[in-house]
Amino acid sequence: MPPEPTVFVVDDDPAVRQSFKWLVGSIGLKVQTFSCAQDFIRDYDPADSGCLVVDVRMPGMSGIELQEKLANDGISIPIIVVTAYGDVPTAVRAMKRGAMDFIEKPYNDQAMLDRIQLCIERDAKMRREKEIRREVTWRAERLTPREREVFELIVAGRSNKEVARALDISPKTVEAHRAKVMDKMAVGSLAELVQLSTYLESD
C-alpha cells in the first residue's frame, strides 16, 4: 500500500494553521502544520507523499527560500504558494522555479481544496514514475555491453539486419542478443521495450 498522502502547511499565523486543519480534515486528508520553514525542514521525510502549502512571507526563511532549499536538496514535493495581492510577482517567480500553483489571499476554500487534490495526484504520479524508472534502470543494468548496444539500436527503430551491419555481427547473433534483451527487460513486444526506454532517457 502506498503511504497515505499528507498536506503539509507552513504558515506563521496560528489562525491560518488551524483553518487548514479544519479545511483539509473535512475531506479526510491528513494534515501537518508548521509555524516556520525550519520546523518543516527538520521534520519532513521525503518518503512522505502529499503536497506542501506555504506562505510567501514568514519570519526567518520565506516560502520562496524554502522552495529553493527543497529544490537544491532534490526534493520534488508539489508546492502551492499562498500569497497576498502585492506578492503576486513573487509567486509567479516561484512557479517559474518549480512551484505547481499559487493562490491569492483571501482564497476560496473549494478552490484551495481543488488545487490540493491536483497536487496530491501529481505527487502520486511522480512517485509511480520514479519507481518505474528505478525498476527499468535495474533491468537495463543487467544487460551486457553488447546487449545494451543492441537494445539502443532496436529502440531507435533499426531492423535486425541494420543492427547486424552497425555492429558487424551476423543477423542470427542479433536475434540471440535481442531475445536476451527482451527477457532481461521483462517485455513481450518491441512496443513495450520502446516504452521502457523512455524512462531511461528521462533519468
Please tell me about this protein's structure.
- By secondary structure, the protein is an alpha/beta fold.
- The protein folds into two domains: 6-128, Response regulator (Rossmann fold); 142-201, Winged helix-like DNA-binding domain superfamily/Winged helix DNA-binding domain (Arc Repressor Mutant, subunit A).
- The chain is 57% helix and 12% strand.
- The protein has helices at residues 14-25, 37-43, 63-72, 88-96, 109-141, 145-155, 160-167, 171-184, 190-201; strands at 6-10, 30-34, 50-55, 79-83, 101-104.
- The protein has a five-stranded parallel beta sheet, with helices on both faces.
- Helix 4 (88-96) links the parallel strand 4 (79-83) and strand 5 (101-104).
- Helix 7 (160-167) packs across helix 8 (171-184).
SSE topology:
Blueprint: E1 6-10, H1 14-25, E2 30-34, H2 37-43, E3 50-55, H3 63-72, E4 79-83, H4 88-96, E5 101-104, H5 109-141, H6 145-155, H7 160-167, H8 171-184, H9 190-201
Helix pairs in contact: 5-9, 6-8, 7-8
Q: Count of helical segments?
A: 9
Q: How is the biggest beta sheet arranged?
A: 5 strands, parallel
Distance between the termini: 25 Å
The counted number of beta strands is 5
Order of helices and strands: EHEHEHEHEHHHHH
What fold name stands as the CATH topology of the largest domain? Rossmann fold
Mean pLDDT: 89
Low-confidence stretches: none
CATH class of the largest domain: Alpha Beta
The global form is elongated
The strand line-up of the biggest sheet is 2-1-3-4-5
CATH architecture of the largest domain: 3-Layer(aba) Sandwich
The helical percent reads: 55-70%
What is the total number of structural domains? 2
The amount of beta strand, in percent, is 5-15%
The structural class is alpha/beta
Radius of gyration: 23 Å
Instruction: Tell me the name of the CATH homologous superfamily of the largest domain.
Output: Response regulator
